[in-house]
Amino acid sequence: MKIDLSRLVTESRNPASAEIDTLSTIEMLQVINQEDQKVAIAVQAVLPQIAQTVDAITAAFANGGRLIYMGAGTSGRLGILDASECPPTYGTHPDMVIGLIAGGHQAILKAVENAEDNAQMGQDDLKTLNLTQHDVVVGIAASGRTPYVLGGLEYAKSVGATTASIACNPACAMAEAADIAILPVVGAEVVTGSSRMKAGTAQKLVLNMLTSGAMIRSGKVFGNLMVDVEATNAKLIQRQTNIVVEATGATKEQAEKALEACERHCKTAILMILADLDAEQAKSRLTEHNGFIRAALNNN
């Protein structure tokens, strides 16, 4: 696919940084910082589309579906980063949120030549995952025209999966190809065409919202506490104790006792203390209410 890069916002020159190579270090950083401040405003403008996508992902999770990110280069790496952080943070199965990158795992650390230009590879990667209509596929590309992602979106729509795109150029091919178009237009980069900067930051902010929002809507947060966190290291073991203490007002000793009784499952420990239940009773009630602590407490 040939395209005039000069027509893309993400490839345009930024007058604010036109002489950045002549500035002092602090002046250079001030320019970068001032440009970065525009990113959150650009994301704010597309909150309705982000919310629509969060609701679609939440519905997919409830029906046994998955969230699948697709991207190339920086965009692909950001998707993989977001996906990889869901299991330890929210206790999800590794297959619930998946990140795909053009060129496969080797492309995470090193660019794979021409991989992003292969639309068939995008389709094939989704076929390997046995994509179904219950899944949500989110394409990520600053340019909004990456063939690998477009190929994936086309295939996803053909099987009935919900599709969304995250791009930083308006009226792009990915926006037209997806059911939901998330377009935080951050403007020209400080270093021309270096979309790992403002565009990458915008993408990261959106991805944070997609998974965090869907996990909150799925009952994996109580108040603002990550109550499905897995204890995979000493820090997280301590965090579990702190979460139970914060959620219940119990002492650390009481929290530890409850956690030990339920194999260190925060939700169960919290419900045990708040509803005065034993571990089996709390587990049963949580299952009955699909893991939502508030519903389990009301027990309606």
What does this structure look like?
The chain has 300 residues and is α/β, with parallel strands linked by helices. Helix content is 52%, strand content 9%. The chain is built from 14 helices and seven strands. It has helices at residues 25-44, 47-62, 73-84, 86-90, 106-109, 119-128, 147-158, 173-177, 198-217, 234-248, 252-261, 266-275, 279-288, 293-298; strands at 67-71, 97-101, 136-140, 162-166, 180-182, 221-222, 225-226. The strands form two sheets. It has a five-stranded parallel beta sheet, with helices on both faces. Strands 6-7 form a two-stranded antiparallel sheet. α7 (147-158) links the parallel β3 (136-140) and β4 (162-166). The chain is globular, with a radius of gyration of 22 Å. The mean pLDDT is 94.
Strand order of the largest sheet: 2-1-3-4-5
| Count of β-strands | 7
**What is the CA-based Rg, rounded?**
22 Å
Helix content: 40-55%
Secondary structure tally, helices: 14
Coarse shape: globular
Mean pLDDT: 94
Structural class: alpha/beta
Termini Cα gap: 56 Å
- Enumerate the spans where pLDDT stays under 50 for 5 or more consecutive residues: none
The major β-sheet equals:
5 strands, parallel
Task: Report the β-strand fraction as a percent range.
Answer: 5-15%
Order of helices and strands: HHEHHEHHEHEHEHEEHHHHH
